[in-house]
From TrEMBL:
This is Site-specific tyrosine recombinase. Residues 124-295 form the Tyr recombinase domain. The lineage of its organism: Bacteria, Pseudomonadati, Planctomycetota, Candidatus Brocadiia, Candidatus Brocadiales. Residues 21-102 form the Core-binding (CB) domain. Keywords: DNA integration, DNA recombination, DNA-binding. Pfam families: Int_N (PF24624), Phage_integrase (PF00589). CDD domains: INT_Rci_Hp1_C (cd00796).
Amino acid sequence: MLQCTGGKSPNQADESLGESKTLKDMMDKFMLEHAPTVSTKTQTSYSASLKHLLPYFGDSKLSAITPKMLYEYKVLRKNQGAKPASINRELAMMSKAFNLAMKEWEWVENNPMSKVPKEKEDNERDRWLTEDEEKRLLDNSPSWLKDIIVFDLNTGLRMGELLSLQWNRVNLFRKTIVIQESKNGKPRTTPLTQKAADILTERSKIRNIKNDLVFTSTVGTRIDGDNLRRAFKKALKKAGIEDFHFHDLRHTFATRLAQNGVDIYTISKLLGHKDIRMTQRYAHHCPESLRVGIQALEICHNSVIIKENQIMANA
């Protein structure tokens, strides 16, 4: 028996319900049901994206959001000074929500984001710390920041991974740490250099009783990312180092590995890259590994010549 739905069948009622939904309705449901299933870092990214998406699209009906409207949003964000990566991140969240609204909630029939190309991102930044710059930076950093810098130069962790590192993920005996909340969604075990292990050994002697975090503020609380960036920027200025960001410590770690002959596959694993193509940016720093490949080819070529000469000599 059909339930009373104001003269409409249940399917028609569901359809009209979906058509009445706004982007804010969709995002509220998205944050309530989907956001808890992702990492804390991704949830933070979602919240940051909503600060820009909701003022522009919030009251718009889902059926009224078109590729043209999305394009105009991109133009607005560019004029506001947003970077391509930020715009892509915001629209990727919106696209994910639309996919759920289309495939699982049956609120819409299509995803308007499917017709909107991503902004081209310049991810080929090639800036790393020289040995002289490293010395100057450390000389101009307070002790708590110095530990973080040296540790990151020896592990290549992302800022979020470093600040969320807990003692229960540290094994000083085996000299390893486990990154539980990595960007690719999968935990990874990272071996430690002796220098990185020494930092953890010293910090273990003064562990904070308020929480299990390895790196904490001077009052024992979690270090805020923005505060860390400000302190890092201040140290850079005192050291006279320009065009360098905290994330470039990670680039420095990878670049130094490549310059010392470590293969791209190993670097990719140490960085926690999901796709080795993300690591290819460091390939030009690996001339020695390329030379090994050429030498192997030469050995193969020479062995063929030797065999041919032996055959001719025995003929």
